Amino acid sequence: MSVFDDPAAVARYAEGPRRLVPGFLDLQRMAMLLLAERAPPDAHILVLGAGGGLELKAFADAQPGWHFDGVDPSAEMLRLAEATLGVHARRVRLHEGYIDTAPAGPFDGAACLLTLHFIQPAERAATLRAVHERLKPGAPFVTAHHSIPGDDAERALWFARYAAFAASSGVPRAQAERAGATIGDRLPVLSPTEDEALLRDAGFRDVALFYAGFTFRGWVARA
After folding, report:
1. Overall pTM > 0.85
2. Distance of CA 211 to the CA centre of its chain
3. What is the spatial distance between Cα 49 and Cα 97, in angstroms, rounded to a whole number?
């Protein structure tokens, strides 16, 4: 069973990003602002990896005229998203599945936060192309996930820093160190150069880094 299908783990999900992702709340706010640069006041926004509903709620709180389609493969996480959204749920359609489950759009913008590092490179490339196909010309796309430069030794150092950050946020140190090691061993984490190349190959232009926090990087681009 995936951790995202475990009801007990899902119930604790909201605690995790704030402890593990440097500047998590500001990351959400920056993503919203970058979308708002080009998206109209009544924008239709696609959110990939929407389970939990944290970014959906942040976007909906800040932009009362936006409507959303959110996609996630975990039914449990989508149930949590619906509960998290509260009164905003009427502006959101949630879809269980992957990018091919998303409506065709065209959307005024899209976001994918803390999700792409779970996806193997070939599938990630196909996912980015599918997001691009669903966006209006010039529409913004914001993404952020684990992305680490360097050789094995440098990457190990960054994962140790990730663990140190988690421990300083209240995660038991042994648990934090296991999490850092697990991410390094099990997730297909790419380098920033590789991530930017995938975005460009998918058809995105004006790819620009807007966020860096230890093992995490974030980019904004245009369709």
Report:
1. yes
2. 13
3. 9
Tokens of 205: 């232009």
Q: Which amino acid appears at position 24 of this protein?
A: F
Contacts of 112 (CB under 8 A, 6+ apart): 47, 48, 49, 131, 141, 142, 143, 145
Q: Which strands sit side by side in the sheet containing 140-146, from one edge to the other?
A: 92-96, 67-72, 44-48, 109-113, 140-146, 216-222, 205-213
User: Distance between CA atoms of 31 and 159, rounded to whole angstroms?
Assistant: 24
Provide CB contacts within 8 A for 169, sequence distance 6+.
18, 19, 20
Question: Is residue 10 within a helix (H) or strand (E), and if so which, with residue range?
Answer: helix 7-11
Q: What are phi and psi of 216, to 5 degrees?
A: -105, 145
Dump pLDDT digits (tens) for 14-45: 567 889 999 999 999 999 999 999 999 999 99
CA-based nearest residue to 16, from 187, 162, 190? 162
- Residue 67 exposure: Cα atoms within 13 Å on the Cβ side: 8
Amino acid (1-letter code) at residue 85: L
